Each structure stands twice: as structure tokens, then as C-alpha cells.
């Protein structure tokens, strides 16, 4: 495929691998967090770790929208489908997220809930147009990348007076999450979680630009390299991070110049701020309550806010006690440190959210990386 | 329903012909009465036409050639019913023939069961049945027994078809998924993922324009050619030849290889660069976030072959029109975890795991 294969060239990857190996300094360890699930997936799927020297360790970050979705929000979606009898439209990844009482949206569907898998916010709008006698609720998740299409769907619904359409907004913000990780006691207390730099998000950055990361780089002295989701992008970004660490620099660099500018997509930003406002606080699975980290519909669009329309309240639900998703999402633990990884918790029967999406650290490790561990714990 | 309009009194000796243009399936077509008899006679028996159906009995009685009997059954619920490169009728014939064939058997007879939904257009049913008849005739495997049921509107989705196949495998031929040994080679008979992506391209929420067509095909002639290519070698040394054949349908190539690895208690190492995927399929998968390794095929074979015979079998595959693009894609290795692993084109290594959840529902 033109414009794709060029970024998956194994020969070039090996050359970059050789460069990285040549430039890492002896006695030095490099711990980089890839914030995004898209990067986590690429690293596992293409076997990038095999091309890196031992001194470079990748830490999987919380940038997987499904993984950080708290149980209480999924419960809320299930109530909409089962009790309020709405057509609940959402992205495929959401369907298997484990909720309270052993339920998930997929299981709610089997119990008669009308749950539809969609590929875009526009599909949800289409459902509402085609089913005027039914309430259609779009359970919207995602970081800054998927927020503009949700905003557009809401504006469109308002323009068409589509009274049977509403949205449960779970859109969250990347910079708030990165700040939360950098402020966490594990990272601040030197030595608990070494973190030498970030691979910055690809698609998120096309919307918000590279500017929002400048604060972290400067304030926390952490280099950030924004990278595309192709494997060569990731390799190149790691090389750029190694060089920054070696030089003692902490800057925002942009590897993904073919899509990301400093200011980002102003039109999309404008659209988002027209429809959404900041929530004072929002619960993230793994990170807990994070201030100003998520969006809600503005008052002008209250008619399309499912939380108001159906008077829904989000209840906090604690994670399974054995589940280490929280620590894994903060980079404190590796999936293999979790007692139930690969035994009780598998992609078929996910206990924690990191096992649900293919972008989740546990699912990526389970699906692609298990061969590294022999003997492996298997589900018998 | 529409029939009402043309419903003149039935004269003695005259039966109203099936209205294939505007008529629809109704509950009488499954009631056991005259309407059902008419449907069977004018549509099914007429299309499938053979001596067994002509007898009008509840079953078919026949003798089989010497050897062991192989029997397989397959239900088909594909949506949409008609797709580029095929339809549910041809698929129902090919699917079951292939399940019999990959056991090493020559498929001999088929039986078919139809579950029709009230309101299903008779014209569409005729298209499906004609396509089945053509596929069965082309394959030389007649449909000798059948059944029809009608369910109320909303309880089915047009038509579901279950087919059963029967075949005979000669003594001494032991193809089985538990026979893979470390060192064996893994062959695939052509481009993977065509069927699944052809169906995907028509799905309501996704519809995209593409030239991808389903690979739906009967593979028994190809199987026979592969078995013949190593017959002499196997006669001399029973440890040689083809260990296992399988058609990677639902769950795709990855699922089939995981099944064989688990059955045989071995691992596998694939070479990503060797796996044939059409650029259109790769592009569509990329676009939809799917992995072609998990996308269904309906006219492809996976063969596990003793290393010394891999080249012979590969050459025999390529000599057949349905195996023109065959490739060797990897080897069986010793692995107590029974992982299917892959050397990525990028230079790394990864597990090719069992499919989790449902990648594409109702693909066959």
C-alpha cells in the first residue's frame, strides 16, 4: 500500500535500531512512556521491542479510551439500554468492557438491550434519523481525536431538531492525564517509576497540536517526541528521545510533521469548544478522579445531553481487588506483575479494562508478546 | 400478500404456478400441504434434479464405494445473501464439500435443509436455489435429500441453509489436525481474506466500493490433486506426505493454524512477508482496523506437509487454477505453549493469537 508500506520497512527499521544501539550510553537506562494505545499496539504488533537495545524500556501509558473508562460509566450505558429501552450506539471496543454484576454491553444486548455497534458518530445520527419513534443514545468515548466528530453530530442534531438523539459524553483530555501521571507520587518520588520521556500522541496531536506538551517538557524536564502510529515513526521517535536524554534536553519535538502542526486543527478546536465545556472532575479508571480532565455538553445543547435527559447519575464502582489495571495504566506495573493476568483475566474473559481493547497494555501483551515469557501462565 | 390478486379458483387438474416474480414465502410453504409440495417439486426438485429426489421419498438410499465414510455438516447464515463472487446458495454447497474434502475424502452426496422466513421473495429463493444447483452440478456432487421449514416473519433472516455432505476416504490416508510435527511446512493455497472483505464491503454501516470478490469455491479437485502428487512417496514411507488440510473459514488463517497447533501440541513460526494478501484486501483491512489473518476465506486451503514433500505439494497447488497463488508461509516448530508466532515484515516477532470476540459477525 502506497504511503503505508514506506513506514513499515523492515530494512530501515533495522538501521534505526542499529543507530539507537550505537547512541545509548553505557550504564544508562532509558525509560520512555508511549502515552497512546495506538503506539502500544504498534510496538506489540510489529515486535518493535525486539529491535531495541536492552537499555531502552517502553512503558505503556493510559492513552486507551476504553481502558480508562470507569465501570460506573459502563453501568450507566447498560441502564440506558436495559431500563430506559433506548437504542444505545457505541464503538465496538466498548461492547466488551466489564461492568458491575458480571455484565457488559454485549451481555446486556443478549438480555434484550438494543445495543448497536457503530463506526462513527455520524452512524449514530443516522440511527436516530431512521428510528424517529425510538430514543437513540450515542455513548461517546475517546480522547481529543474522536471529540470533534461527536461535536459535529450534536450540532447537526440541533440543526435538524432531532429530538430523539442524545449523547453520553465520556470524552477525556490527554494533557490532563499526562500531568496526573507526572504528579503521581510514584513518579515524583525519585526512583519508584523511572520516566525519562514521552512518545507523544499521533492522532490526538493532529487536533490539539504540539503546543500543549511544551508545558510538561519545560515544567517537569521531560522530553516529548510526537510520533505517528506506524512502526518506523515509533523507532524514529525513540532515537530522538535517546538523543534528547543524552544531550540533557527536554523539548517537544515533532516526528509526525506530515500531520501535526504546533497549533493543531483550529477548526476542530473551535467546534469542540462551541459544543463542550470542561467538567470540574472526571473519574479515570486507574488514575481516579482527575480535575478538569473531561468534557461535558454546554448548556445550550442540554437537550442532547443524555445524562440530563434521562437524569442519570454516575456511581463510583471499585475495581476488582486483584486487578492491577490502575498501576499498569500509571506505568507502575507491567501486565506480567498482575496475579490474574493470563489466568483469570484473558481477552475472552477480561476482568480489567486493559485486557479489553487491543490498545490496552494487557491485551497487547497477551495477544502479541506472550512468547517472551516461558513458562507462561495459561488459562489451562 | 401479493398472491391474493392472482388467486383465481383452482380448477381441477390445474395448480396455480409459483409466482416467482412477485410471490413470497408464506406459512403454507412449510405446512406440509399442497403449497409445500408445489414449492419442493417446482423449485427444489426441478433445480437439483436427480434420481434420488425424483423418487420422492423422505430420504435417499445409496451404496458407497469402498473406504471409510466422512460426514460433515455446515449451517449458513451469511448476511447479505448475495455478495460479489457468490451467494448463500453456492456458499452452502462449497462450504460442506470443502469440509468433506479436507478430510482427504471424495465428496459424493449432499443433503440440504432450508429455513425460510415468511415474506421472503420467491424470486430470491429461486436465485439461491439455482445457484446451489449450479454449484453442485459443477462440483459433481448432487443434493439428494432435503427439508424445508418456514418460520414467521421476524424469526429468521430471509433464508438459512444447512448442508450435510458425505464422502469416502481411501484406507491409508490419514489427514488430521493432530498430525503436525516440528519441521513440517505450512502452505496456503492463495490470497487470504477475500471472502470476509467482500462481505464487509456490503455491510450497511460500512459500505465501501471495492473490486474484492469472494473466493467461494469447491476445493475437492484441488485436494485430490495434492493427494495424488505425493501418493507414491507416502506408499513407500507413511511418515511422509500431507499431514493435515483445512479450509480457513471463520476466524481466518490465524484461527485455523491455532486449532492445528493446539490439536498437534506444537508451535508454528510464520513469515509475514510470505503470506499472500491482495493489496485491496490489505487496504480495506487497514482502513477498518482488521487483521487479514483473521478474515474468513471460502476457497482456500491450509496444508501441513512433511518437509521433504513441501515443494512437490506446493508445485501441485500452483498447477491447479484454485492454487495458482499458493505460498509456503512458515514451519511447524517445537513449543510447549503451542503458540503460533510470526516473524514480522518489520523484523520483530509476535504471537498470532486466537481470535478474541467477534471480528465480523455472520460471514458464512
Describe this structure in words.
Chain A has 380 residues and is of the alpha/beta class. Chain A folds into three domains: 19-39 and 46-61 and 175-254, Rossmann fold, CATH 3.40.50; 71-174 and 264-309, 3-Layer(aba) Sandwich (Rossmann fold); 325-368, no CATH class. Chain A has helices at residues 10-23, 37-45, 71-82, 105-110, 121-130, 147-160, 174-183, 185-188, 203-208, 214-219, 231-247, 266-275, 306-309, 325-329, 361-369; strands spanning 30-36, 56-63, 87-91, 114-118, 136-142, 165-171, 197-200, 224-226, 252-254, 276-278, 281-284, 288-291, 295-297. In chain A, strands 2-1-7-8-9 form a five-stranded parallel sheet, with helices on both faces. The longest helix of chain A has 17 residues, at 231-247. The radius of gyration of chain A is 21 Å and the shape is globular. Chain A starts with 9 loop residues before the first helix and ends in an 11-residue tail after the last helix. Chain B is an alpha+beta fold and 364 residues long. Chain B has ten helices and 13 strands. The radius of gyration of chain B is 22 Å and the shape is globular. In chain B, helix 1 packs parallel to helix 4 (122-139) and helix 6 packs antiparallel against helix 10 (310-319). In chain B, strand 12 and strand 13 (349-351) form a beta hairpin. In chain B, strands 8-10-7-11-9-12-13 form a seven-stranded mixed sheet. Chain B has helices at 34-48, 51-54, 88-101, 122-139, 194-200, 220-229, 231-236, 252-264, 279-288, 310-319, and strands spanning 68-76, 82-83, 86-87, 106-117, 143-151, 159-169, 185-188, 242-246, 267-271, 302-305, 327-333, 340-343, 349-351. In chain B, 49% of the residues are buried.
Amino acid at each position: 500500500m502506497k504511503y503505508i508500506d514506506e513506514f513499515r520497512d523492515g530494512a530501515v527499521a533495522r538501521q534505526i535500531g542499529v543507530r539507537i544501539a550505537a547512541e545509548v550510553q553505557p550504564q544508562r537506562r532509558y525509560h520512555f512512556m508511549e502515552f497512546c494505545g495506538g503506539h502500544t499496539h504498534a510496538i506489540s504488533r510489529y515486535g518493535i521491542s525486539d529491535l531495541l537495545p536492552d537499555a531502552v524500556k517502553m512503558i505503556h501509558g493510559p492513552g486507551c479510551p476504553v481502558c480508562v473508562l470507569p465501570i460506573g460509566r459502563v453501568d450507566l450505558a447498560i441502564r440506558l439500554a436495559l431500563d430506559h429501552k433506548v437504542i444505545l450506539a457505541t464503538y465496538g471496543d466498548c461492547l466488551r468492557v466489564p461492568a458491575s454484576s458480571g455484565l457488559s454491553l454485549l451481555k446486556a444486548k443478549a438480555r434484550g438491550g438494543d445495543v448497536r455497534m457503530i463506526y462513527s458518530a455520524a452512524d449514530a445520527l443516522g440511527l436516530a434519523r431512521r428510528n424517529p419513534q425510538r430514543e437513540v443514545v450515542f455513548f461517546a468515548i475517546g480522547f481529543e481525536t474522536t471529540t470533534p466528530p461527536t461535536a459535529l453530530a450534536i450540532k447537526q442534531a440541533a440543526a435538524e431538531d432531532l429530538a430523539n438523539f442524545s449523547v453520553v459524553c465520556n470524552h477525556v483530555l490527554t494533557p490532563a492525564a499526562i500531568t496526573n501521571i507526572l504528579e503521581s507520587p510514584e513518579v515524583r518520588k525519585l526512583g519508584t517509576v523511572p520516566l525519562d520521556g514521552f512518545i507523544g500522541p499521533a492522532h490526538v496531536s493532529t487536533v490539539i497540536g504540539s503546543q500543549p506538551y511544551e508545558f510538561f517538557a519545560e515544567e517537569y524536564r521531560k522530553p516529548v517526541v510526537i510520533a505517528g502510529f506506524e512502526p518506523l515513526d515509533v523507532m524514529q521517535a525513540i532515537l530522538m528521545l535517546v538523543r534528547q536524554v543524552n544531550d540533557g534536553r527536554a523539548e517537544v519535538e515533532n516526528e509526525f510533521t506530515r500531520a501535526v502542526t504546533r497549533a493543531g486543527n483550529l477548526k476542530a478546536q473551535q467546534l469542540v469548544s462551541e459544543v463542550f465545556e470542561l467538567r470540574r472532575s472526571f473519574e479515570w479508571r486507574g488514575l481516579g478522579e482527575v480535575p478538569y480532565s473531561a468534557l461535558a455538553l454546554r448548556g445550550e445543547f442540554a437537550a442532547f445531553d443524555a445524562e440530563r435527559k434521562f437524569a442519570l447519575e454516575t456511581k463510583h464502582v471499585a475495581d476488582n481487588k486483584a486487578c492491577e489495571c490502575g498501576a499498569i495504566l500509571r506505568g507502575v506495573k507491567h501486565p506480567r506483575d498482575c496475579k490474574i493476568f493470563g489466568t483469570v483475566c484473558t481477552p475472552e474473559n477480561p476482568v480489567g479494562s486493559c485486557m479489553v481493547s487491543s490498545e490496552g497494555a494487557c491485551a497487547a501483551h497477551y495477544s502479541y508478546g506472550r512468547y517472551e515469557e516461558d513458562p507462561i501462565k495459561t488459562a489451562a | 400478500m401479493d398472491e391474493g390478486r392472482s388467486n383465481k379458483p383452482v380448477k381441477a387438474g390445474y395448480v396455480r404456478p409459483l409466482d416467482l416474480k412477485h410471490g413470497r414465502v408464506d406459512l403454507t410453504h412449510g405446512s406440509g400441504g399442497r403449497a409445500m409440495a408445489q414449492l419442493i417439486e417446482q423449485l427444489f426438485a426441478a433445480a437439483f434434479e436427480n434420481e434420488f429426489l425424483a423418487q420422492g421419498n423422505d430420504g435417499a438410499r445409496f451404496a458407497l464405494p469402498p473406504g471409510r465414510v466422512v460426514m460433515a455438516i455446515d449451517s449458513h447464515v451469511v448476511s447479505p445473501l448475495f455478495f460479489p463472487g457468490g451467494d448463500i446458495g453456492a456458499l452452502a454447497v462449497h462450504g460442506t464439500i470443502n469440509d468433506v474434502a479436507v478430510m482427504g475424502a471424495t465428496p459424493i452426496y449432499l443433503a440440504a435443509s432450508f429455513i425460510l422466513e415468511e415474506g421472503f421473495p420467491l424470486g430470491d429463493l429461486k436465485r439461491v436455489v439455482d445457484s446451489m444447483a449450479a454449484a453442485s452440478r459443477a462440483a459433481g456432487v448432487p443434493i439428494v435429500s432435503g427439508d424445508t421449514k418456514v418460520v414467521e416473519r421476524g424469526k429468521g433472516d430471509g433464508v438459512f441453509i444447512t448442508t450435510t455432505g458425505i464422502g469416502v476416504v481411501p484406507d491409508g490416508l490419514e489427514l488430521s489436525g493432530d498430525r503436525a510435527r516440528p519441521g513440517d511446512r505450512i502452505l496456503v493455497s492463495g490470497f487470504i481474506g477475500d471472502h470476509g472483505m467482500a462481505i464487509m464491503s456490503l455491510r450497511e454501516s460500512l459500505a465501501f466500493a471495492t473490486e474484492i470478490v469472494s473466493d467461494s469455491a469447491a476445493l475437492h479437485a484441488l485436494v485430490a490433486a495434492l493427494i495424488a502428487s505425493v501418493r507414491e512417496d507416502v506408499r513407500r514411507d507413511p511418515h511422509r506426505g500431507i499431514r493435515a488440510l483445512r479450509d480457513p473459514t471463520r476466524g481466518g488463517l490465524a484461527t485455523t493454524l491455532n486449532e492445528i497447533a493446539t490439536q498437534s501440541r506444537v508451535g508454528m513460526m510464520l513469515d509475514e512477508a510470505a503470506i499472500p494478501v491482495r493489496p485491496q484486501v490489505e487496504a480495506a483491512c487497514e482502513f477498518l482496523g482488521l487483521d487479514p489473518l483473521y478474515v474468513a476465506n471460502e476457497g482456500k486451503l491450509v496444508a501441513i506437509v512433511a518437509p521433504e514433500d513441501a515443494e512437490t505439494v506446493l508445485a501441485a497447488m500452483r498447477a491447479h487454477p484454485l492454487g495458482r497463488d499458493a505460498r509456503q508461509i512458515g514451519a511447524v516448530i517445537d513449543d510447549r505453549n503451542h503458540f503460533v508466532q510470526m516473524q514480522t515484515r518489520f523484523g520483530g516477532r509476535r504471537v498470532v493469537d486466537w481470535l478474541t470476540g467477534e471480528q465480523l459477525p455472520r460471514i458464512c
